[in-house]
Predict the structure.
Amino acid sequence: MQDTGSSKQRRALECCTDQDYCNRDLHPTLPPLRTPSYVVGDIHHIALLISVTVCSFILTFIIIFCYFRYKRHELAPRYSLGLHPDETLIPPGESLRDLIEQSQSSGSGSGLPLLVQRTIAKQIQMVTQIGKGRYGEVWMGRWRGEKVAVKVFFTTEEASWFRETEIYQTVLMRHENILGFIAADIKGTGSWTQLYLITDYHENGSLYDYLKCTTLDSRAMLRLAYSSVSGLCHLHTEIFGTQGKPAIAHRDLKSKNILVKRNGACCIADLGLAVKFISDTNEVDIPMNTRVGTKRFMAPEVLDETLNRNHFQSYIMADIYSFGLILWEIARRCVSGGIVEEYQLPYHDHVPNDPSYEDMREVICIKRIRPSFPNRWSSDECLRQMGKLMTECWAHNPASRLTALRIKKTLAKMSESQDIKV
């Protein structure tokens, strides 16, 4: 007798021959079932299963580790400028004003020594982000308790950082109506780079921000205008001598690039597109920079591409056109007869919020439109004169525009006639 299904493996035989039907009393018992042995393919499957399980565990651990490392990085300060205290080159108790005054009286007049700049840059505590633009971010920071502004450039804007640093460190560049430069530094490894420009901090922000939330009287209006053109005049003027200063054109003059100080005066900032005039060789030093100016504030000759790039005076006159638009922005916020206009950008009623070259070219070059004056200006002598001044700034023909020095003298005379100290 044998079982069915596994006859080759399990058998039980019993025999009898003593009588008929003797197998009736036989009860054969099968041997115990043996555990089948695995074939080689089964062992491979088990090994694969174990490998997958271990790999999954390791991968899960790596993901969790990376996640917590990322979160820790996110919570940490975005920009680290730490330096060990014993690495400082600046004696305790020295303020920024002290350092700058020492460099002006004993140095070349081109800013703080490089090692001092780098030390300051590495000791700054980043506090809060206060602005962001196409070039990077602006942070409010602290150095030994003093507030400073830290401009952090995107790595793609290295040319702007280099140019602005170079211009700020030009001999005799420092002026009360030019943003005060403190230090510049570049920090990085093979995979990342951080470019810093550290300047004075002005809590009122840009002229654009200031005008949006502030109305002016004649005194405040003239102070903003006069201080702005004083900074522009210093930029445009060449100072001759062994410690001379070249003439500089801004090329991106607008209300967002002018800052308002606590005393109501202005200072000009953002010199990343500036050009210098090298009088010894009669050449224009143009930065290698892919950035262009702001289309809304571009002069007609820039928009229609007729500006002579080899003639420095062309850039000066383009600045004056832009300054005329800034005067218009300021004057609209001056109250007269109890009336004041809400803040608007130039050409707000003719072009979209982000105008194209074609939009601006059609309005400025073809239609030759300029910002309109409110009727109330005609009945206020100060505003009437401001209107005449800006008209002479934004003339279509660059040769007909005023110089920065002429504008400065006119505004000074207007202030004297109204017994206003600017």
